């Protein structure tokens, strides 16, 4: 057992630091002096650690003592990060190609690319205290559903920013077809929210729907968003999150493929507090997410024939399977959906 407590390098946030050697699977011998109590451990590394085998032995990793496998351990601090933010090219050619966006809108609803489309947003927007004339920043505005809804129903001015040129092209096309008064209240812009610069204390509300999952450095982003809000201004965000447990390989692969950075709802709330927000509310909305997904499927499935005429059987299957997988991931506790409210 003494060997277990030797100091060995451990990879933490990209730096090598000295830490205790961690156990891996396999049965450990009984601790000396305590006969007969061998500890049978499931073949996995300790909870709250992600582990990867290192095939080359060149990366900063170390052999696990009991099984002698070479492993690299990384402390899980409530985040699952892919480190680099999704690039414009990655978004425009993968998840948000023009075809994918229009296909998503067939299940989310026209001008919506997020959970529950207009119905969900209508319910959530009631919480924001919007008043005519307010200035709203919509971070990752997509094809503009929220901007159109807020400007039309609450008389606010909306500045929508999105990294995907496909999203903004579609949003602008739609805006051009709207009445003149609406056109004067909404502005859409292509921009990476981690790079754009806006004036401090210039927005009454900063709003974002299912977007910040694409951004790993949430800490810096939320500090910036806090500064852009007027004193007393409000932040309102919904975002994909993850459950507080060890994750299935399927879920880890999904997050990696998509390039998401997911936090637990609790850890996410802490990020907001540490960014300087007050009155932070971090609400686990996974049950609502599940019922919205079920509802979306219920209304989408009967449109199969019309959908296939415009797209294909394969596209239909991808959507339906994608929604079913989200349901499985949520029920298994891997995936979660959070709502965050805070004040500057
Ligand atoms: C799931 S969609 C949600 C769109 C919209 N909020 C809605 O409710 O329909 C996520 C959006 O985030 C945008 N996005 C991702 N990374 C971004 C970044 N760094 N800056 C601005 N927008 C980003 C994507 O292009 C995409 O439009």
From TrEMBL:
Organism superkingdom: Eukaryota
GO BP, sorted A to Z: methylation
Enzyme Commission number(s) from the entry: 2.1.1.103
Residue ranges constituting the Methyltransferase domain according to the UniProt record: 131-247
Gene3D superfamilies assigned: Vaccinia Virus protein VP39
Keywords annotated in UniProt: Methyltransferase, Transferase
Catalyses which reaction(s): N-methylethanolamine phosphate + S-adenosyl-L-methionine = N,N-dimethylethanolamine phosphate + S-adenosyl-L-homocysteine + H(+); N,N-dimethylethanolamine phosphate + S-adenosyl-L-methionine = phosphocholine + S-adenosyl-L-homocysteine + H(+)
Pathway annotation from the record: Phospholipid metabolism; phosphatidylcholine biosynthesis; Lipid metabolism
Record keyword Electron transport present: no
Enzyme class, spelled out: transferase
Molecular functions (GO terms): phosphoethanolamine N-methyltransferase activity
The name this protein goes by in its record: phosphoethanolamine N-methyltransferase
Protein species of origin: Penaeus vannamei
């Amino acid at each position: 057992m003494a060997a277990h407590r030797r100091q060995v390098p451990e990879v933490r946030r990209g730096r090598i630091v000295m830490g205790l050697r961690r156990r891996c699977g396999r049965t450990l011998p009984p601790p000396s002096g305590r006969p007969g109590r061998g500890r049978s451990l499931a073949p996995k590394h300790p909870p709250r650690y992600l582990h990867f085998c290192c095939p080359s032995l060149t990366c900063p990793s170390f052999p696990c003592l009991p099984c002698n496998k070479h492993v690299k351990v990384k402390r899980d601090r409530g985040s699952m990060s892919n480190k680099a933010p999704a690039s414009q090219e990655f978004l425009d050619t993968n998840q948000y190609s023009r075809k994918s966006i229009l296909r998503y809108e067939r299940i989310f609803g026209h001008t919506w690319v997020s959970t529950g489309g207009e119905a969900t947003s209508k319910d959530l927007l009631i919480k924001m205290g919007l008043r005519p004339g307010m200035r709203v920043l919509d971070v990752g505005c997509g094809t503009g559903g929220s901007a159109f809804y807020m400007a039309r129903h609450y008389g606010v001015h909306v500045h929508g920013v999105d990294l995907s040129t496909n999203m903004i092209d579609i949003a602008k096309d739609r805006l051009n077809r709207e009445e003149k008064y609406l056109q004067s209240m909404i502005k859409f812009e292509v921009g990476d929210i981690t790079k754009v610069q806006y004036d401090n204390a210039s927005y009454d509300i900063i709003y974002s729907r299912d977007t910040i999952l694409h951004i790993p450095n949430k800490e810096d982003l939320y500090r910036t968003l806090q500064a852009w809000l007027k004193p007393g201004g409000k932040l309102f965000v919904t975002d994909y999150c993850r459950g507080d447990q060890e994750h299935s390989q399927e879920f880890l692969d999904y997050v990696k493929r998509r390039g998401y950075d997911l936090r637990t709802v609790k850890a996410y709330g802490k990020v907001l507090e540490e960014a300087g927000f007050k009155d932070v509310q971090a609400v686990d909305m996974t049950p609502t997410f599940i019922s919205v997904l079920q509802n979306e499927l219920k209304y989408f499935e009967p449109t199969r024939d019309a959908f296939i005429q415009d797209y294909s059987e394969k596209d239909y299957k991808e959507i339906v399977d994608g929604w079913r997988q989200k349901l499985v991931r949520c029920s298994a506790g891997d995936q979660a959906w959070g709502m965050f409210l805070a004040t500057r």
